[in-house]
């Protein structure tokens, strides 16, 4: 590789890729890809902390990878692959488990959330999930991790683990930094704007899939929960309107103030339509590209096979170094 800095990021193949994933993560991956060496993974090992149907999972993994490309990720310039195709993720995860404390993991809010939602399946994987995420990042000596703000706590833990390891063995890992967008870092549900837009929300009106067609997007925004005071302003207590303003600002690359000015004096109906149209236009090329890619499975296979090969090469370099530091006998 040349001397560009390294980006790593991933999305779990559960539910469907939402406008939240897009504005929080994917859009930035696309924007940053020219200036960095990028590694984008469909993190399928992460997804089995919740039970998955095998046939569905296989289909969804393919679909997610195609959606990365459809959003504008260049699969030839960057490394795009399935996490399960590079066994070093699981190996490093085990090693880092031995340098992570139970107390640290039990403070993770995502663990607390998910274990209360899936009380019948609080498995050890759900608990150690942030360690696998740390392994993903540290394997590639990553500089920058573009994610939504919900991953900030996991990233901080990743840095703590890396520093602890480096403290014992010398400079093994690069300490990564997060890249969290100003607007769009936390897109809220259209039906309950006090909670995060979630890709596995059973209420489909709560989220926009990046593959939703124009009519569906229009309908979902029309139904979006707002408030009754009728003023388009960004302030506490106006969660629904705040969310729509953030979405609009993230898409148009303008500040919240600029968006507020643009809509001054308009009613909620027109406002929602304008936000919907902006989202439709943003996602139109994504859907078109996705349809085109769907017809070209051989090309997709070539992308992820080559991606895994390159990822494997880089990951095994880091892993070899770690083995030596730990005191394992050379192969
Ligand atoms: P996940 O859906 O949990 O696999 O998340 C994949 C990426 O999307 C991560 O970078 C998350 O931070 C980001 N993300 C997920 N949901 C949202 C949301 N509602 N708003 C902004 N970013 C999000
Ligand atoms: N944990 C992330 C999420 O749920 C997904 C993820 C796994 C990730 N490994 C990663 C994101 C590495 C960035 C870097 O959103």
Tell me what you see in this structure.
With 331 residues, the protein is mostly helical. The chain folds into two domains: 6-180 and 296-326, HUPs (Rossmann fold); 213-291, Tyrosyl-Transfer RNA Synthetase. Helix content is 54%, strand content 7%. The chain has 13 helices and five strands. The protein has helices at 19-32, 44-47, 54-70, 88-97, 102-106, 109-117, 124-138, 152-169, 214-222, 239-252, 256-262, 268-294, 297-326, and strands at 5-11, 36-42, 79-82, 144-146, 177-179. The strands form two sheets. A three-stranded parallel beta sheet has the order 1-2-3. A two-stranded parallel sheet has the order 4-5. Strand 1 (5-11), helix 1 (19-32) and strand 2 (36-42) form a beta-alpha-beta unit. Helix 3 packs across helix 12 (268-294) and helix 4 (88-97) packs across helix 7 (124-138). The longest helix has 30 residues, at 297-326. The radius of gyration is 21 Å and the shape is globular. The mean pLDDT is 97. The structure holds adenosine monophosphate and tryptophan (TRP). Adenosine monophosphate (AMP) is lined by residues 11-12, 20-21, 23-25, 147-148, 150-151, 185-187, 196-197, 199.
Briefly summarize what is shown:
This protein is mainly alpha-helical.
Tags for this entry?
single chain, 331 residues, mainly alpha, Rossmann fold, Tyrosyl-Transfer RNA Synthetase, 2 domains, three-stranded parallel sheet, two-stranded parallel ribbon, 13 helices, 54% helix, globular, binds adenosine monophosphate, binds tryptophan
